[in-house]
Amino acid sequence: MTNYLEVKNLSKSFDSFQLHNISFTLPKGYIMGLIGPNGSGKTTTIKLILNMLKRNGGEIKIMGLDNIADEQKAKSELGVVFDTNYFSDDWQVTQVEKSISVFYPNWKSERFAEMLRKFHIAPTKKVKELSKGMQMKLMLACAFSYDAKLLILDEPTSGLDPVSRDELLQILSEYIEDGEHSVLFSTHITGDLERAADYITYISYGELFFSGSKDEFVDMFRIVKGGTEELSADLKEKAVGVRTFPTGFEALVKAEDTGAFSSLSIEPATIDEIVVFTSKKGDDYE
Question: Is 27 in the same domain as 78?
Answer without folding.
Answer: yes
